[in-house]
Amino acid sequence: MRQPLAYELHDLLERGRDRQLRLAVTGLSRSGKTAFLTSLVNQLRHAGLEARLDLLPAARQGRLLGARRVSQQDLSVPRFPYDQAMSALAETPPRWPEPTHGISELRLVLRYRPAKRGWFAGETRQLTLDLFDYPGEWLLDLPLLAHNYLSWCRSQQALAGEQRRTHFASWHASVDSLDPAKEADEADLAEIAERYAEGLRAAREAGFADLQPGRFLLPGDLAGAPVLQFFPLPGLSEADPAALAALPPESNYATLARRFHHYQKHIVKPFYRDHFRRFDRQIVLVDLLGALNAGPERFEDLSRALANLMQSFDYGKRSLLSRLFAPRIDRLAIAATKADHVTPEQHPRLVALLEALLADPLKDLRFASVPVRALSLAAIRASEAREVEHRGQRTPALRATGLDGEPMLLYPGEVPERLPDSAFWARQGFSYPSFRPLPMEGGALPHIRMDTALDWLIGDKLQ
Ligand code: GDP
């Protein structure tokens, strides 16, 4: 046990040290990252004022004194557009913020009073919180690092379900006749790659999530660069690897394989090395209700995409990630977002479903001793919970406004507690219309369990 004097010394050191935490937010497109980060910054800025953060002890105890934005350290990363997001929400009628498309950053300095008073009663401390937001699609590229071009082609072919294939029809029409051994034609490859990217985009629009390469969906400043002009060659499942490897460097196969390796080395690895490796904590957002609404094939696809994505948090000694990058995330949260789309008594079921969906990756994480917590939340609550009389019984319901301004009173249905079976899909009794954000009252955004998320992600640093 430490002696009292040692405690005081420890306190003194803590105070002298620049306390800093790098917290990253990710999730697939439309999972709610922009809404989450906007709300997180908003709640912390209004902590101690009108923000409702009872489940964050530092706020409940009145020790969290507020947060101020300061200039970020890394000037090459765009700043998260918090002001634009808040202006959209403050419009009449309110609008959802425009989503971000690449990595962005924002730095907050939190002031708080420590829970334990030492010699210096009434002292305040600071925590510098660096917030990052980046597309979960980029994490889908980690498994790609475990492949060479041939094994990647084969893995992609194995994915082709019936619905998924329809989105790639135009790509198939051109790639199926491409001879791997023929000399590559730049313009042809660019054209076929564009069709492949279109297929990926169409599949994403239709709700598919297990899509590689991730940068084809969100190229940022790489749009049109030759490094993004490759695609998997179909029909190689039976091909002889040695014969393919012996093809001349100008052949289609060798050219595509070179670009694939370039993509691994110059796009995927630098993200992990320069950003991911430096995050301390991470929250992964999942639009589980959206997938539930979209039907079995897409739900299955989300499950696969998440299993892929979660590999980026598997720190087991033998994991690809640990071998390559030695990351240091010491706490992870996984959240089912937009919980305001179901009535409150369904929230525990939503968490149970999330845990069921991620059962295998969660087991691996717990095995690798990465503390992880699953929860459900609404970053920006857009509905109000009500009770209505239905056939003489009081039943829960939601009141909200549709995107077109139409008022709604609805019971969205039951969330299955386990992975949905065919009986659930046959009933499909789930209703998920988009809601318009509530008009702003005061400065703090209404939310569900942002305080629980904050407590798990930064609460221990505010002790
Ligand atoms: P991103 O692509 O991950 O940044 O996702 P966004 O944050 O842009 O969210 C996508 C859409 O989901 C938004 O435009 C909203 O329609 C909806 N959304 C996000 N968060 C919430 C929430 O907390 N409640 C509700 N009802 N809808 C949300």
Automatic annotation (TrEMBL):
The protein, known as: YcjX family protein
Q: Which Pfam families match?
A: DUF463
Q: Which SUPFAM superfamilies match?
A: P-loop containing nucleoside triphosphate hydrolases
Gene source species = Halomonas tibetensis
Q: Which InterPro entries match?
A: P-loop_NTPase, YcjX-like
Taxonomic superkingdom: Bacteria
Q: Which PANTHER family match?
A: ATPASE, ATPASE-RELATED
